[in-house]
Design goal:
CATH superfamily of the largest domain: HUPs
Strand order of the largest sheet: 1-2-3
Bound molecules: tryptophan, iron/sulfur cluster
CATH topology of the largest domain: Rossmann fold
Number of strands: 5
Length: 327
């Protein structure tokens, strides 16, 4: 079976953007591929090394949401990167064959260096972030890597590193391909892309009254000031969420009634809330039940990490032989 590998940094409780753009895709992939999904806690360390106090709790909180969304430890390997030290060993070997220029040209690196001012990113590991990511993928000989568009240059770099390694030491690594899922463009409460850092996000496990409050106060078509002003759903972030969560009937109704001021925005948001909760509530409930049973989550991750170590070790045996170190 072809292999899928992907990871997420431990950001804590996930929002609807993660759910609809990432987890939904992962859950589908687990039925057709041998999947390895992991918490990239070493990647968190490349920029958040000064305060590691939340990495563990964020790891567990996030994996509860993975399980809530339907990732099934019987169907895929769920693990923690730092529990598979082979990633670090491969990272070191890959770092030997990776020219600095390749890393300095990575768009996510250049942007972060320009934009992020509240942390010192002038450290060695941060530049090496994509080399560690390459190791994550290559150590499982991953065929496909489901990622967002911003990560495509990292997968391209992974292919280049694999090619260069194979050229020096022999053909060990297949070249992985990025797998871009249809991106539902989940917008946040302010109309921008939903993101924790914009503070416009709705978490899967926000209490229902918090979800309603966030939806109730969402930005709408700015031209629709009063109840009798007609609106344009095509410029309204509420409508864009309807398209993800609501029935075709509701979408059609909003599309007509908004334009002739037949419904008010609060009615419209209430309908969105009802439809969205049909999807979110069972996932949140399942996530909370894992939160209540965190030892079970730890057990799943320990077991997954053990399986991942076995697979990673198989590749490392080939890699060590190819590089011809030791005795
Ligand atoms: N860099 C990825 C992100 O920020 C996370 C990640 C780490 C990853 N290692 C990976 C994704 C390996 C795919 C494969 O989203
Ligand atoms: Fe947006 Fe709905 Fe209000 Fe129209 S009725 S502006 S779609 S919230």
């Amino acid at each position: 079976m072809e292999r899928v590998v992907s990871g997420m940094r431990p950001t804590g409780k996930l929002h609807l953007g993660h759910l609809e753009a990432v987890l939904k895709n992962w859950v589908e992939l687990q039925h057709n591929y041998e999947c390895f999904f992991f918490v990239a806690d070493w990647h968190a360390l490349t920029s958040d090394y000064a305060d590691t106090s939340e990495i563990r709790s964020n790891t567990l909180a996030m994996v509860c949401d993975w399980l809530g969304a339907g990732l099934d430890p019987q169907r895929c390997t769920l693990f923690v990167q730092s529990l598979v030290p082979q990633h670090a060993e491969l990272h070191l070997l890959l770092s030997a064959v990776t020219p600095l220029g390749w890393l300095e040209r990575v768009p996510t690196y250049k942007e972060a260096r320009q934009q992020i001012k509240d942390k010192d990113l002038n450290n060695y590991a941060f530049l090496g972030y994509p080399v560690l990511q390459a190791a994550d993928i290559l150590i499982y000989k991953g065929d496909y890597v489901p990622v967002g568009e911003d990560q495509v240059p990292h997968i391209e770099l992974t292919r280049e590193i694999a090619r260069r390694f194979n050229k020096f030491y022999g053909p060990i690594f297949p070249e992985p391909q990025a797998l871009l899922a249809p991106d539902p463009r989940v917008v946040g409460t302010d109309g921008r892309r939903m993101s924790k850092s914009y503070r416009n996000d709705i978490k899967i496990t926000d209490p229902p009254e918090v979800i309603w409050e966030k939806m109730r106060t969402m930005v709408t078509d700015p031209a629709r000031v009063r109840r009798h002003d007609p609106g344009d759903p095509d410029v309204c972030p509420v409508f864009s969420l309807h398209k993800i969560y609501s029935s075709q009937e509701t979408i059609d109704l909003v599309n007509v009634e908004c334009r002739r001021a037949g419904i008010g925005c609060i009615d419209c948001k209430r309908m969105l809330y009802e439809h969205a909760m049909k999807r979110i509530a069972p996932i949140a409930e399942k996530s909370r039940s894992y939160e209540q049973n965190i030892d079970e989550v730890k057990r799943i991750l320990q077991e997954g990490s053990q399986r991942a170590r076995q697979e990673a070790e198989r590749t490392m045996e080939q890699v060590r032989a190819a590089v011809r170190l030791g005795l």
